[in-house]
Prior knowledge:
The structure is a single chain. This protein is α/β, with parallel strands linked by helices. About 40% of the residues lie in helices and about 15% in strands. The protein contains 15 helices and 12 strands. It has helices at about 1-20, 35-40, 55-70, 85, 105-120, 135-140, 170-180, 195-205, 230-245, 260-270, 280-290, 300-310, 320-325, 335-340, 345-360, and strands at about 45, 75-80, 95-100, 125, 145-150, 160, 215-220, 250-255, 275, 290-295, 310-315, 330-335. A 6-stranded parallel sheet has the order 3-2-1-4-5-6. It has a 6-stranded parallel sheet with strand order 9-8-7-10-11-12, sandwiched between helices. Helix 3 packs across helix 12 (about 300-310), helix 8 (about 195-205) crosses helix 11 (about 280-290) and helix 9 crosses helix 15.
Amino acid sequence: MKSRANGWLRRWLIKPLAFCFSHKAPKAQPAFSVPDVLKAPRKILIVPDGRAGGLFLGASQFQAIRHRYAEARITLLVHAHKAYIAREIPFVDEVMVYEDFLLPLGGKLRGLVRRLQEQAFDIVFFFSTEESFCPAYFCYKSGADLRVGFQRDDFPFINVQIVPRPETRYERERLALLLRTLGISQVKDGVSWPVSKAGAEEIRERYLVSRKPGERFVGLDVSTCTGNRPTVKQLQSIAEVATALANTRTLVFFDSTKRKAANRIKATLGQKVLLFQTDDLPKIVALLEACHQLIACNTDLFHLAVAMGLPVTGIFSSSDIVRWVPADRKGVEVLEYETLKNWRPQQVSNTIQQRLLSTAPAKA
């Protein structure tokens, strides 16, 4: 009930007030040609989708932009919580971060707006579809002549709007539509997230304490996700199944908002569980490479594991499967949340155990 009330306040009170503060009558600007701006922009701002997985799924679009505009300076604007991912993306020259706000007020916010305007961006590629007003505000305030994004009636800050297809599609394909409409081709090579062999081994030696010969690790991501998620008790049951396997420990990954859930699992299972906060991408990649499999809700690590080719089990609402799971499901299994939520702990345990036993160990 509380979340519904917050949603009502944001939609009918906070958003209109924010528009009043930010969407002033624009100054007269000289006319410009969209094809001319698209031909050879000098400075580009990318605002990715801020939802879980948005940076990993959007990285191939950033790569396509870089390939098309090899000489341009590209800046990526992300929420502060995603900065650890954004700084590892090789296709951008600079990363700027923002914090959420209710109303566009305060010195820190004005400072970021000033930095954006000083860049004098030619184009903003606005991939965001999240409910937050903040990224749209910064897109508008950047002052770029061309601000292109998907059509949204409630965000009048985009001056070139691409109409999305009505049917639900895999998120990467949906994002690609924005660039294809503008004549920007996709890059055939997939985006990888490598860590040097020596660097990865050093990370594992540091964090996988008391590692035994032949020991296996199962990753469990309890981070914040989009949509419904299992209860802490169900996640704990999954961790118990993983640690019950011979010579196996569970690596529990969490973000700052789910620290308490991760600590509860650790308190129950003790030394069979290692906790890792998702704040360092090379560390997370190296640890995932050591995992036999990852079990995740709809979070960044699910999409990272898919990109890495790691066996992964995702837990999704049935309505989200098409959006978040690739059509080529090699190594990817899905448990529907609507089914899982009604299961007893033993049913959860049996299903997860069968999945863990059926997958081959990840390559070294």
